[in-house]
Amino acid sequence: MNVLVLGAGIIGTSTAWHLQKLGHNVTLVDRQADAALETSFGNAGQISVSYCEPWASKGAPLKILKWMFDDTAPLLFRPQFDMAQWLWGLKFLRECTDAAFMRNVKNLVALGAYSHETLKTMVATTGIRYHRLEKGIGHYFTDAKAFAQVDASASLMRTLGVERRVVTREELLKIEPALTPFAHQIVGGTYTASDESGDARLFTQGLAKDFITNGGVVRFKQAIERLHRADDQLTHVTLRDTETGERESIKADAYVVACGSYTAPLLRAAGVSVPIYPGKGYSATLKILRPEAAPDVSVIDDTRKCAMTRMGDHLRVAGTIELAGLNLDLNTPLAQRRCAMLTARVEEVMPGVVDTRSVADGGDPQFWCGLRPATPTNVPLIGQTAIKNCWINAGHGTLGWTHGAGSGRALAELMSGQTPRMAFDFYNAR
């Protein structure tokens, strides 16, 4: 079967790679000059099966209201004159029940475990190097009340087969001594030895190269303008060369839409509505000044809901979510405050370890933002759309890197008439 995969982030590239392994002829398309130059570019780098919890929970609405006017809040809802945002929000509220939370977390953990095992196989097969650290993920708390509630989350993960354990401050410092300067504020934490970290961009670009080496076709610098539909079939896709402006039509037997947050408007124009809304996230990549004092274990700051991950000679700190539409501006006052919050927190936790100076002061912080494609459930949409030959693999929110390998494999299996070996509610609009 000839398959056209639209979008070359971790999700689309993984899908293309797995389809190729199952014997299909695959063309991978992206508007950028290489794979993983948008949402997969600058994330926190965590393969965090133990943190696959949905945002929607019984206590989420009150938290969001509390955070609405705090520019440094982990999740920031900025109301827009955008019907898609409000419809998404209403669906989100419907998921804020205990029953929905349990259903969603089971799906997320099942996909996470399946994906992690798949990633290990892919790494062994390809030999891709991507600053991989198999040293687990630590989560530290500075609020005693929040820490007192973590045992329930850890217990839930253990029930689902993920060994996330609660640790004392002293135990956490032994696991990751880089937190010692901040020890006086830490009240305890959790640690999951089976989780890991690495650079999603490097992995995805390596995977794209392997795909090409084995006969796959990649069309970079091609903007996806329109899906053309006749009855219940896609007939072709219009591409536009981002350099020349020239347009062309490309046909396939089957199509996969894996365009992250842009999946929803692209499908909407073809008559298919999917509940995906962009969540703007930020990161800062900072030069390590003192390698001996930098962390080897990727850590999560519970107060700021940001993650800090070592990637070679740099530290990546990433976090926060803004539900404010398709906005990638880094120069707004709000964006600058959120970027400043990330560097300030690193300096507070690990003083002098990384170069947090601004450009004006002689530093070289690499700030970035990306649009995380979020569903109200946080469960990604993987499966067949209402258009017979059109499939979707999108909506992974903050867990694209965690779920990318398995999502690609699962969709490739579904398209090949196979049944993925996991308990997961696949998307099927037919």
Low-confidence runs: none
**How many domains would you count in the coordinates?**
2
Please name the fourth-level CATH homologous superfamily of the largest domain. Answer: D-Amino Acid Oxidase, subunit A, domain 2
CATH topology of the largest domain: D-Amino Acid Oxidase, Chain A, domain 2
Describe the structure.
By secondary structure, the protein is an alpha/beta fold. It folds into 2 domains: 2-41 and 202-275 and 377-428, FAD/NAD(P)-binding domain; 49-98 and 132-196 and 277-374, D-Amino Acid Oxidase, Chain A, domain 2 (2-Layer Sandwich). Helices cover 32% and strands 26% of the residues. The protein has 11 helices and 21 strands. It has helices spanning 10-21, 60-67, 83-94, 98-126, 144-148, 150-159, 169-175, 200-213, 263-268, 333-349, 400-415, and strands spanning 2-6, 25-29, 46-47, 75-77, 137-141, 165-167, 188-192, 196-197, 217-219, 222-230, 233-241, 247-250, 254-257, 277-287, 298-301, 306-311, 314-323, 366-374, 381-384, 390-394, 427-428. Strands 4, 5, 6, 7, 14, 15, 16, 17 and 18 form a 9-stranded mixed beta sheet that branches. A 7-stranded mixed beta sheet has the order 9-2-1-13-20-19-21, covered by helices on one side. A hairpin with a 2-residue loop joins strand 16 and strand 17. Helix 1 (10-21) runs parallel beside helix 8 and helix 1 runs parallel beside helix 11 (400-415).
